[in-house]
Amino acid sequence: QLDPENTGFIGVETFASLVHSHELPLDPAKLDMLVALVQGNDEGQVCYQELVDLISSKRSSSFKRAIANGQRALPRDGLLNETGLGFYKRFVRYVAYEILPCEMDRRWYFYQHRTCPPPVFMAAVTLTQIIVFLCYGARLNKWVLQTYHPEYMKSPLVYHPGHRARAWRFLTYMFMHVGLEQLGFNALLQLMIGVPLEMVHGILRISFLSLAGVLAG
Which topology term describes how it sits in the membrane (predicted)? Predict the structure, then answer.
């Protein structure tokens, strides 16, 4: 109705009036991204396909252009003005400002953050690493510089240059640690960075990225 010539675009004023009158308001973060896209449009119009992509949370070329245009569309302290947040949401905001340089990225991260489904992958990996370390610590009776123990390299989990044919070792070495310091540092990073990222991007993306890093290592 708003696009009788079927061009795929409508004026931003028309869209704004539609947004204000509709009973189901848009996600504020997605609305900000759409505004950034409009400002990057030569005609200053809203594109239907870009709207669909944002509503369906597709990280498409439209999203990338919104990010590129969004640096001058939003103040840098946008999320810092959010009030009434609980402890956990404040933690999510803290992570966003620690790891993301652009306010648009921070908004996307903050508003896309979900607790369901839970971040089971990073939590399971961290828990397994702790259990394996405790088992080997008790078995070797050594909690620091375990690699110096003669029995350490006999573990079926360790990567060993002489056993490259045992393909599982390229992944299972991720569960072995030199000592408490390395385990603690890895567990802290996985829980403070990996878990929040998994809550945004989901288990498939994060598990693929994490395991790709293990293989590259």
Answer: Multi-pass membrane protein
Give the count of beta carbons closer than 10 Å to the beta carbon of residue 91: 13
At 214, list the tokens.
Answer: 């293990």
Mean pLDDT by 10 residues, the chain (217 residues): 81 79 74 72 73 69 56 50 77 80 74 79 94 89 82 85 88 90 91 85 90 92
Question: Closest Cα to residue 34, out of 14, 23, 48?
Answer: 48
What is the largest distance, in Å, between two alpha-carbon atoms of the chain? 78
Examine the fold and report which residue of 71, 86, 107 is the final residue of a domain before the chain moves on.
Answer: 71
* DSSP 8-state class, residue 117: S
**Alpha carbon distance 28, 130 (integer Å):** 40
Radius of gyration of the chain (CA): 24
Q: Which domain holds residue 20?
A: 9-71
Residue length, the chain? 217
- In the chain, the number of structural domains is 2
> Do 67 and 125 sit in the same domain of this protein?
no
Contacts of 34 (CB under 8 A, 6+ apart): 26, 46, 50, 51, 54, 66
With respect to residue 126, please indicate whether it lies within any of the assigned structural domains: yes
Residue 195, domain member (yes or no): yes
